[in-house]
Amino acid sequence: QVQLVESGGGLVQAGGSLRLSCAASGRTSSYYPMGWFRQPPGKEREFVAAISWSGTSTYFADSVKGRFTISKDNAKNTFYLQMNSLKPEDTAVYYCAADRPFKGGNYPLLEGGQYNYWGQGTQVTVSS
Fold this sequence. Notes:
seven-stranded mixed β-sheet; four-stranded antiparallel β-sheet
């Protein structure tokens, strides 16, 4: 069973930065494709960013492109979402997601339904 634990959320002013972390369990966690999703208040969950299992390919939602980056540290079994130039519309609960090793090949997984493992979520609030 894969366990994902997010951290790093909080309250930040518009224009500020936060880095979310997602610690993954399992000896093969270095090979997990990973994604970040978010659910704004009163809205449905939406895709934010994803990284292929190899780390060589990433993909971002248009709304965060150029402001967010996604990365992984295999030595720490941890994945990151660096969020810069935050806007009030980035306010949401952020979730990391993972799936079985090597899934997707060199392509990130972009749909929530493609992931079987989810973290508990971390709140990000951006004040104007």
